Amino acid sequence: MNDCVFCRIVAGTAPATKVYEDDAVCAFLDIRPITRGHTLIVPKRHATELDDLDPDTGADLFRTGHRLARALRRGGLASDGANLVLNDGTAAFQTVGHVHLHVVPRRHGDKLRFAKGFLLRRPHEPQSTAAAIRAGLTALDSANPPARDVEGVQE
Ligand code: 5GP
Ligand code: ZN
Fold first, then answer.
1. Cα 43 to Cα 25: distance, rounded to the nearest angstrom
2. Residue-level pLDDT at 155
3. SS3 readout for the chain
4. Which domains are present in the chain?
5. What's the CA gap between 37 and 5, in Å, rounded?
6. 140 in ligand 1 pocket by Cβ < 6 Å?
7. Could you tell me if 31 and 124 are in contact, meaning their C-beta atoms sit under 8 angstroms apart?
8. Among 38, 98, 100, 102, which one carries the catalytic annotation?
9. Is the minimum distance from the CB of 87 to ligand 1 under 6 angstroms?
């Protein structure tokens, strides 16, 4: 597991710009983004492929992808949509052997910019990008507070 770069990012022993984490998953900026804000969500416990991932963690992964896709529409990146992609296995062009869900922000009419980004994979300014995503998460949470906050009931 120690030679897994995403495990090292989760553990904080390899650098990454994290935008979100909880007990099950960690989300950080892709080092070679296709578009600004391209984020990867990984399970904290190592799983190489979907075959190794327990279904509840798979659900946690998608729940976070769903949340991030919604947050990207609200933060400074003001996306119009997102591609959520998971390459499962080397046959599907998975290049890092730790399950990860890509969330790639999209804008209307960005076809050329997307194609260029796909070829060049140049990093954008990570700190301001991460701040824009975190602002989107905050905006999402204030618009949709968890039910227990509304009701004042603890889980
Ligand atoms: P895959 O093709 O396996 O679905 O995508 C792997 C992704 O991980 C690529 O988009 C690549 O840019 C990203 N990646 C590879 N190594 C690192 C790393 O050390 N740090 C970060 N943040 N992203 C990485
Ligand atoms: Zn790992």
1. 4
2. 44
3. CCCCHHHHHHHCCCCCCEEEECCCEEEEECCCCCCCCCEEEEECCCCCCHHHCCHHHHHHHHHHHHHHHHHHHHCCCCCCEEEEECCCCHHHCCCCCCCCEEEEEECCCCHHHHHHHHHHCCCCCHHHHHHHHHHHHHHHHHHCCCHHHHHCCCC
4. 5-139 (3.30.428.10)
5. 20
6. no
7. no
8. 100
9. yes
Q: Per residue in 39-81, pLDDT tens? A: 999 999 999 999 999 999 999 999 999 999 999 999 899 999 9
- Whether the CB of 93 sits within 6 Å of ligand 1: yes
State if pTM tops 0.85. yes
Is 66 a catalytic site residue? no
Collect residues with CB below 5 Å from ion ligand 2.
4, 6-7, 46, 98
* Torsion, Cα of 48, 49, 54, 56 (10° steps): 110
| Cα 125 to the center of its chain, rounded Å | 17
Query: Roughly how many angstroms between the first and final C-alpha of the chain, as a whole number?
Result: 34
